[in-house]
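Box 3.1. Reading complex inputs
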Amino acid sequence: MRRLLRSALLLAMLAPPAMAQAPLGQPPAVREGLEIGASTSEIAITSDFRGADLTIFGALTNADELLLAIGQYDLVVTLEGPRDYATVRRKERVFGIWMNTQSMTFEQVPESYSMASTRQIDSLDQASSLNDIGVGIEHLALNPVGYIPDSGLIGEFREAYRRLKLASGLYQRDTSGVRFVSSSLFRASLKLPANIPDGVHVVRASLFKSGQLLLQRELSLRVVKTGIEQAITDAAHNRPLAYGFLCVLIAVITGWGASLIFRKD
Amino acid sequence: MTVYLPIAELSVNIFIILGMGAAVGFLSGMFGVGGGFLITPLLIFYNIPPVVAVATGANQVVASSISGAITHFRRGTLDMKLGSVLLVGGLLGATAGVWVFSWLRRVGQLDLFISLLYVVLLGTIGALMLQESLRAMRRAKMNEPLPLKRPGQHNWVHRLPLKMRFKKSKIYLSAIPIVGLGFGIGVLTSIMGVGGGFIMVPAMIYLLRIPTNVVVGTSLFQIIFVTAYTTMVQAATNYSVDIVLASILMVAGVIGAQYGVRAGQKLRGEQLRALLALLVLAVGIRLAVGLVVKPDDIYSVVVGGMSF
């Protein structure tokens, strides 16, 4: 253990650029640590769910008091929904009628994305490195399927995708959603949209120090839909023939029943 | 009071759906039509996804056609053999229709195609009905006798091979046009969510020269099975039948239909038909406007869709 610590210290001293990045020139003796936790690992929602807040607590350990006081530490906490392909279509007027003419499918993008941060994240870092780590709605990787030569077109479709997702509430951001409760404890409030997809979601906390990504922590959260409506959806998808038969049966009973009840003779 | 539709994935006001079902049921009872061609566009106007509106519309038609078919069966105005030949075509057509439906959905042109078909069909039928009923009203005013119908006359349909004898209908007719008609109606059932009686009845009377007394019962017979089959296939391939929505519509529809039948007996035929024609035209025009007006957003997102 001591040897490990010594080698870490040695490594820190051997790396002058890392020292130069700390604005006050003090090389940290110990690395910062980050822990996060949620009150539950499973959220059960019913069909009358109208959206809610999810609170994630976290602790920042070994933080530099001075840097913390002047707000050099920043936190971004995101909740990513299950990933799937997403197709964006664009309408155009053809012979006076609006029809879908172009489409672009993006690879494995989160169906929902809720983000909370200590401040506007674009002021945290150069956009390029946010792109690398994929933190923030503007920096999510949106890779089209297949080769599209026109990069301007990709840009337009990406922008439309983000705009539509934000408008539907599936993508959300709150630039003041993370607050320090004490010098080391913080609380992040993430918004769960009313139309949140079920499946495994990932909570990811990223700690930035003076605009540089320091470390990330993840934990998974399962969203389970419950209630009669979900049972119907499951039946429709898992046992479609039985479900279809039931639909027909209800129709037959309703029609037949009406002719018996309202029979005149 | 709102109710959540699990397949359409949205919350709706239950009273609006009940009202829609009752109103369309009333009209269908009054005019003796299935009502699918009104319920599907109304659901689309109420923001139900067209995929769900069409599949659920087909399911609703099963219920609204059954009581009528039972009545005709009791009265003996249903030709089982003719209905079965129609049904063969209908099942084939519905299968082909669902295949086209799924393909259109995959390439993102389904909503447009449904609207276009409705505009064309509702526009044509509304205009023809309006013309016919106005002519009848004028004739009634001038006390002119009805022009003589010539049911005995033969046309090209009667020269086709594969002739079959239909005892109940008292006709001797080739199976080809019957299967063909059934096929066309089957396609419409799966793509538009209609029973297709409003096309089948005139086609049987004027094209195939089938005696009027068995036409309605026989077409209802075929409609029940084709719509039931379409419901099953849509449920199995597109997962788009909403059982909650269908149940509300069906219950309201069959009750509305009973009052519609009574109201229809008191009113005069031509005026009634002119009213229905205007309604059909209005729905068609409303859909046409939706096609040409610039949409709020020219972009749309679908999850899970692989387009090519």
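In summary: The mean pLDDT of chain B is 86.
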